[in-house]
């Protein structure tokens, strides 16, 4: 069996940056646009700005932890090594929440847009089709190639460019009496509304931290990866802010035919039937590909946890004898996705953000624990980069966590309690450390 402990270091900054942007999927801004507009009371651009600030501090913390642990890692690894093994397990449990339920949110969003285009077909039919098609593909172990990723990214950027150009032309021809600052400060809005929108907007940023999985294949990873992580969060944020800004400029009203497919209505308004069809194709292609990879990643994570005895090995570490895929895990993710039929887009994305914010908060605290507490680095630069910045990041992440949808907070709290009970059982009342999940790049780790 070929060893995977010595991976070839060939990736430079442009390669890593492209990987991060592909993982981020820029068109996700349109997928939840209406939900954020509604939650922020018409200040989606401000919500994305606040979310970007929070993510920039967190991205900086991920970069600092890459320097500390230059191996294929994650928030699970950083927290376990810098804070505590039990806290690390709980962060891993929060990550599991993201992985298991992200496909559900992706398919629900895609189904909402298809329902807007074909209202005669109920949402549940589209959700069912998404689940069946992607589950069958993942059961056979088919993976998306690098060339397909390039084409999909190019298509997404083309659709975004067309949306912005047509949106600005629409505003110009309409000669609307409109303040350029209104998308940032809508009448009747409030900072609490901006935070409510920001707590959902962070869903769009999920994935910038996946760059850490490329540590062992990147040239000068301690220099390249921190730059790439921050750049991906920044560029993603700029795209999200500009798109939401133009969208609100075109359609300043908070009223949509269907809030879950609001961006499709705007696309139809600015480009007619032709562009709305292209726009819908971009959304569905992006959502389908994201759902396919998300389900595969979730099944891979469950397999890794079963293999390392973090979860029952007999079930979660099972591989199909012919296809060599974790078929039980793939089917389980598909079955859990049926919860989408009983949840709104806002609740499903907020539920996922509960896990993300929990993990992000702990990564920020890990920077302080590693550099300031353990290594006792106390220069002015350290107090700024390794204390003030991560402290602000942890504050923003925790603040956004508290501003999540109430139903999502209840579900997230229940998930955390379940994880704590399982941890107590597995460690015999916290008397021993939980098993450690191996983090090899190709054996199935936690790339979040």
Automatic annotation (TrEMBL):
Superkingdom as given in the UniProt entry: Bacteria
Q: What residues does the Amino acid permease/ SLC12A domain cover?
A: 16-402
| Statement: the UniProt record of this protein carries the keyword Transcription regulation | no
Q: How does it sit in the membrane?
A: Multi-pass membrane protein
One of its Pfam families is AA_permease
Q: Where is the signal peptide?
A: none
Q: Which UniProt keywords apply?
A: Membrane, Transmembrane, Transmembrane helix
Q: Which residues cross the membrane?
A: 16-36, 83-109, 121-141, 148-169, 189-208, 228-250, 270-292, 327-345, 351-373, 385-402, 408-425
Q: Name one GO cellular component term.
A: membrane
Q: Know the name of this protein?
A: Amino acid/polyamine/organocation transporter, APC superfamily
